[in-house]
Amino acid sequence: MKLARIGPRGQEKPAILDADGNYRDLSTIINDINGATLADMSWADNLEMDSLPVFPDGKRIGPCVGGVGKIICVGLNYSDHAAETGAKIPREPILFGKATSSITGPYDNVIIPKGSEKTDWEVELGIVIGKPSSYVTEDDSLDHVAGYCVINDVSERSFQTERGGQWIKGKSADSFAPIGPWLVTRDEIADPQNLKMWLDIDGHRRQSGSTNTMIFGVKTLVSYISHFMSLQPGDIIPTGTPPGVGLGMKPPTFLRPGQVIELGIEGLGAQRQDVIAWTDGS
Questions:
Q1: 100: Cβ–Cβ under 8 A, 6 or more apart, which residues?
Q2: Residue range 208-249, pLDDT digits in tens
């Protein structure tokens, strides 16, 4: 299934994508696409798709998961991306947080924050948790995954690495976590370690990679993180990015107002964001 959330910010309704590409309204069956819905998927049994109302074209597509409890990101998790930044291959996954207030829809604007000089892009595979998970083994870890989604892990590099403290400062501005358009359930993705991914800026390809160059794969990450904290249904794990970020360009190149970001992952859909400057009304 491809699950989505449709409607104005804060008023999104749950939806499912049918075989003809129509978004159908699930709000008579479930309240939202959130942790509670993902923890008990019995509502999807014997779902009569044709009986569900179709959303009109042009409706806003919101973040594909609502009420996210936490975002636990993985840094330097692609061997080719680590190489472009000059970093050593980590011995264990590098974990950091991203504020849930950064979550936005896949076609909403990316806002360059006040005082930013180095706002960057990162296409990432997102893991969406579907079961409470503590001390999960790698063999069992996929059973705890509800599905996957596209994430643009927007990052302000000077906030991240030049202002002291932890990376979360450069990762958490409003609009810095576009997710979706869909949460694609685990059964539709045969191998999460073999998905092509890409990102363009103003029509120019900047990132082109595959999840097969991840240092720590999905199974490892879910198990590893669950040994440090419990993972709850609806939690999201962005898993790192392939090479081609602005920081790795020569010279480094960062986002400017007026630019357009487009990105996607095989089987998970695509995003598009206009880049705008922060204002008092942002």
A1: 68, 69, 70, 71
A2: 999 999 999 999 999 999 999 999 999 999 999 999 999 999
